[in-house]
Amino acid sequence: LLGGVGVGTGSFATGESYTIDRTSPSVALTSSATDPTNAALILVNVVFSESVVGFSVDDVTVGNAAVQDFTGAADTYSFNLVASGEGLVTANIGDGVANDAAGNPNTAAAPFTRVFDSTGPSVSLSSATPNPTNLSPISVTVSFSEPVFGFTSGDISATNATLTNLVGSGSFYTVDLIPVGDGMVTASIDAGMVQDATGNDNTASVPFLRVYDSMAPTTVAITRVDSDPTNAASVLYDVTFSESVTGVDVTDFELATTGAL
């Protein structure tokens, strides 16, 4: 029995009993904080498989965090992790930092990790549709900086347009804007309409703008600039449309005569 491993009992000739304990205490770190989390204080519970002595705050090794409010005794302890910045937060307890009553050193804990995220998702609205446009509907892409939840067309504010055909998930969506009439069409997403996985509210978007113009130019006037009559080899005319146009060239004009030269 004296050469055995683990916990055992024995007795001397006088009837006195004794216990042999060669089993090292194990330790686990747990938390009710979600992963990822935006909690300012991440409560971590430390549970040994049996009572230990010599365990202190200095035995906890952390990454991207600080330890606060360390407390506990025997086999149960706790502390708060305060993240130093966005990203992965870790806590570790190495082997041999505490001992049980028989002097056995503890084994190492599995690393404790949480992703700390306190930044709200940003959002942008874009479209391949030119500005101005006579297209209807106007397809708009909605891009969040990270996946969000619960996004609906009701989260988009529009002027001079209605919204339809919202599709997508996670970080990317598309929606159609149907102009109500000619003029400026806008769409925007206010702050706090949706949340990311840790519950952070989105920030506001920059407004999306397009000028919708479904009306053809109503008039075109051709005015002679040179005096009449003239002996000039060429005659200059001004051509004025009721609004800006593109694509006009010489092939768009026909020469007409009113009498013999």
* Overall pLDDT score: 89
Report the β-strand fraction as a percent range. Answer: 35-45%
Q: What is the string of helix and strand elements?
A: EEEEEEEEEEEEEEEEEE
Rg value: 38 Å
User: How are the strands ordered across the major sheet?
Assistant: 3-4-7-6
Principal-axis shape equals rod-shaped
Structural classification: mainly beta
Task: Outline the low-pLDDT stretches.
Answer: 1-5
Summed up, the helix count is 0
What is the tally of beta strands?
A: 18
The biggest sheet, with number of strands, parallel, antiparallel or mixed sense and barrel status, is:
4 strands, antiparallel
Helix content: under 10%
End-to-end Cα distance, whole Å, is 134 Å
Keywords for this structure?
disordered N terminus, rod-shaped, mainly beta, 18 strands, four-stranded antiparallel beta sheet, 261 residues
Could you describe the 3D structure shown?
The protein has a four-stranded antiparallel β-sheet, with no helix packed on it. A four-stranded antiparallel β-sheet has the order 10-11-14-13, with no helix packed on it. Strands 5-8-9 form a three-stranded antiparallel β-sheet, with no helix packed on it. It has strands at 7-11, 17-21, 27-30, 42-48, 60-63, 65-73, 76-83, 87-93, 112-116, 123-126, 138-144, 156-159, 161-169, 172-179, 183-189, 208-212, 220-224, 237-241. Helix content is 0%, strand content 41%. It is mainly beta.
